[in-house]
Structures are given as C-alpha cells and as structure tokens.
Design a protein that fits this description.
single chain, alpha/beta, 6-stranded antiparallel beta sheet, 5-stranded parallel beta sheet, 14 helices, about 35% helix, elongated
Length: about 500
C-alpha cells in the first residue's frame, strides 16, 4: 500500500470534518434565527443539523486514525490525546485536540439532552462557536497551504460571523414577525395593538365559541408559532388573553377559543361580538412554545385544548409520536373534537367526566418513553395532578404547563423592588414579572420562559413568592428565597429581588 494514502486520508478526513462542523454551526444558527422557518420544516432542519454533526464526528475519527497510521507526520496516541505534546506544529495540533474534546462533549450532551437539565445542554452547546474557531485555526495552521482551504476559511468565518451577529440582534423573541409589518393602530386602540375585525364567530362546544379575526385592510397578520397567545382588546376597553388555535401558516385570519363564564366580564363581551365588528389585538407572544422532541403526550382539560391544537398538528406533520388525552365535564363541553379525531383517531383519547370519570394520567405517562415531552393545559386541579404524577413516578419526562383562569378573573397586581438599583416597578396583572424586570434590566437571563428550565432564577430578599414554575419540587413550594419570574408572581403586595 502506498504510504501516502494515510496522509491523503488524514487530509480528507480533517477537511471534511471541518467543513461539516462549519455546516452544523450554520444550520444551528439558521434554526436559531428562524431565517428558513417558512421554507423548511423545523423538525427536518433539526434532523439535518444532527445528521451533519454526527457525520462530522465520523470524519474526525477517520482523520485521527489516518494520522496515527501516517509515517510522515509521526503523531502518536499521546499527541492526539494530550495538548502541547506534539513535536509537529504543536500549537496547530493543540487547537485540533481541544476542538475534538469539545465536539465530543457537544455530541454526548446532545444524546443525553432528554435526560439532563436544559441549561447544561445549552451551556455546552454554545461551545460550538469555540469548536468552529479552533478547527478553523487548526485547518489554516496545520500545514495545508491550499488556496481552497484559505478561501473556504474566509467564507465560513464571514458566514458564521454574519449569522451570529444577526442572532444577537434579532434573537428568538417569540413575538418577532418576519412576514409583514403590523397595521398601525387607530387612535382609539391601546399602544402596541393593531385593529382587526371579527370575521366569524361560531359555537364549537357547550359554552365555547371559536372567534375568527382578520386584518381590517386585508394585510397579513403577524407570524406566530404553536403555543402563542394574543391580548384581545374589546370595544369596552376590557382585555383578555387567548391562545391562538388556528393554522400558523394562515396569516389571513387568527382563531381563538373562548369559554363563556357567567356574571359578565371579558368572556361575556366576547360572546356578544358580531361578525364585522372591530376590535384590536396585540402581537402574538409565546410563553408556551413547542420544544423539539421525538415523543409527545398532550393533556388538555376543557378550554385548555386551544393551545394544543396547533401543537398536535405540528407534531403530526413532523412525523413525531404523539398522543392526546382530553378531559372535560361532558362530551358536549369538548371543543374541536372533529378536528382532533381527523388528525388521528387512534391517538386521541376523549374522557368526558360524566361518563368515564377522570383521566388516568399515570397509565398514559407509563406508555411514554423517557425524555418524552409532556404538555398540559387546563384548570389548576388537572395541572396539579399531572405534575404530582410526573414528579413522583416519571421524573425523566419533561413537563410543560400553561395555567389559565376564568376570563375576567385577572391575576393580582403587585410591585417588585430591584434592591441593587433601588427601583420599584409595578407588575400589572397582564404582564409577567420577567417582562417588567426586562424593562429595567434588558439582559436579564431567561431561556424557556415557561418555568421549567430555571435559567431566569432570581434571589428573593423580601416578600412572598407565588411559585408557578415546574422547577421546584413539591416539598420546596413554600421557599421564600428564590423565584422564577417568567411564570411566578407574588402573594405579597411587594417582592424584593437581588437585582
């Protein structure tokens, strides 16, 4: 065998690994910035990202084996495992060794992403930028003087740099709209809203109506994703928050589901709306996003089915395993059942309480694999029951919840004191504590913004927190020293945090 074959294999393996790794970083940034979200299925982009990353690791192995077998560079196992031990271009080899360790760490945490805390995976995954930089240095300084390599390096550095800058500037704020600008609000509309008309309203279950909203002038409405909600500003000035339950691909109309609660309030006025009537809405916000997973269990109670509808469609379109358990007082109180059964009758379990009793959450969870994403939305007793089963019997499932109260029963206002700056800010019922904190501290840490990752944790110095997160276990729900402001609030009139 020609001894030069190992040198060629080492060169090809190294360059392919570098190029594929760079492609992995680019794909990750494209996914993060959502630049291709309208043209490429999110799950497909995620799968391609994983495949290219694994392929990069495969070529890295080819590169390492060929280096060990090459008799010209004479690199041994010690030089490949321990930085600064190679006599051949020690700095260049060191960049490659460190990058290899980081790449392996990223792959391992990605494989364990369903079993480790999200923030661990996030911290390690960010080192992909360091891996890209180190591998680029390695490729440019390890002895390859081919102009193609230099040119490729310049292009990749520019591309990754541009996308990284775009990511920093644009972020992944759920309310961002990349389709069309919102229509300007009329003088009578609250700031930050746009006018819409009621395109239609129909009954979809006992005391539940579906309301379709369309742009006043026919322009596309802002883009949204499953789990998003809007503020609906009614002619009287009352404001209600409702989950969007239509098709995210249809930007001509929004659809919301509204439960009629007696004794007046927001829902009473919504049910009295007529087609053609003018109202206003905020831009969509998403504090209940659908995370990427291989298996989903959706649990809904009553009107809690509304955010689940687009989530289930997204999971089905992505080819993921999913199942729905939908409970309500009776069959007549279940909304959108025809749509749900049309998606896959075998995956939908309807549990009317008057005939079938309460859903068996333990059995449903037992049928899911470890790492499954469990989404629950409904009244507080349902969420408490689901959470208790997950925490005590299935801690390796990832629970995501969204609470709701009867329309018109708003959360209480309170104040937050930022001790370090001495500022005291009002926290109204329609804003989260995190939103208010960001007004004063724009770079306040946060990730999931639905109370399960723990990234936004703040130390509480005074006051009584109202814990609504899924981070704290049941035996720590009375803690007064910490709060997760993305979902939690205060039981006391004022809360003081170390910020």
């Amino acid at each position: 065998m020609d001894p030069r074959i190992w040198w060629y294999l080492a060169r090809v393996g190294g360059l392919m690994s570098w190029w594929l790794l760079s492609a992995t970083v680019v794909l990750g940034l494209l996914f993060s910035t959502r630049l291709l979200i309208k043209h490429v299925n999110a799950a497909s982009l995620r799968d391609l990202h994983r495949f290219v990353s694994a392929l990069s690791l495969t070529f890295l192995a080819v590169h390492a084996v060929a280096l060990l077998a090459d008799t010209w560079v004479k690199i041994g196992l010690t030089q490949l495992l321990v930085p600064l031990t190679s006599s051949y271009r020690p700095a260049a080899v060191t960049w490659g060794v460190i990058a290899a360790y980081l790449l392996i760490a990223i792959q391992v945490t990605s494989l364990l992403s369903q079993r480790i805390p999200h923030r661990w995976w996030s911290y390690v995954h960010r080192s992909a930028f360091a891996v890209f930089g180190l591998t680029t240095l390695h490729a440019l300084t390890a002895g390859t003087d081919d102009p193609v390599v230099l040119g490729t390096g310049v292009v990749l550095i520019w591309l990754v740099g541009f996308l990284s800058l775009y990511r920093l500037l644009a972020g992944r704020r759920g309310s961002a709209d990349t389709s069309a600008p919102a229509e300007p609000a009329a003088a009578s509309d609250p700031p930050g809203t746009q006018p819409v008309i009621v395109a239609g309203i129909r009954s979809v279950a006992d005391k539940i109506s579906a309301v379709e909203l369309a742009s006043v002038h026919g322009a596309p409405l802002p883009a949204w994703e499953p789990g998003a909600h809007v503020d609906l500003v009614l002619p009287s000035g009352q404001i209600g928050q409702y989950s969007l339950c239509g098709d995210p691909a249809d930007l001509n109309t929004y659809r919301i589901g509204v439960l009629h609660v007696p004794a007046g309030g927001v829902s009473e006025e919504v049910h009295a709306l007529q087609a053609g009537q003018r109202v206003a809405i905020s831009r969509p916000r998403n504090r209940f996003p659908l995370v990427l997973a291989n298996h989903y269990l959706f649990i809904a109670g009553g009107i809690g089915i509304t955010p689940m509808l687009p989530m289930i469609r997204a999971a089905a379109e992505a080819g993921r395993e999913w199942r729905l358990i939908y409970g309500a007082r009776s069959s007549a109180a279940m909304a959108f059942t025809e749509e749900l059964l049309a998606l896959d009758r075998d995956r939908v379990q309807l549990v009317p309480e008057d005939t079938d009793g309460l859903p068996d959450f333990a059995t449903a969870l037992a049928e899911t694999p470890p790492g499954a994403a469990v989404y629950a939305c409904g009244p507080e007793p349902l969420l408490t029951s689901v959470k208790q089963v997950v925490v005590t019997r299935f801690p390796d499932r990832h629970l995501h919840t969204e609470r709701f109260a009867a329309a018109g029963a708003a959360a209480a206002d309170f104040q937050v004191e930022l001790r370090r700056s001495g500022r005291i800010l009002p926290v109204p019922a329609d804003r989260s504590l995190l939103d208010v904190v960001r007004d004063a501290v724009p770079d306040a840490r946060a990730s999931c913004e639905e109370g399960y990752c723990g990234t936004c944790e703040l130390d509480v110095l005074d006051g009584l927190p109202d814990h609504r997160d899924t981070v704290l276990p049941p035996d720590e729900r009375d803690r007064r020293d910490v709060i997760y402001p993305c979902v939690s609030r205060a039981r006391s009139p004022k809360l003081t945090v170390d910020l």
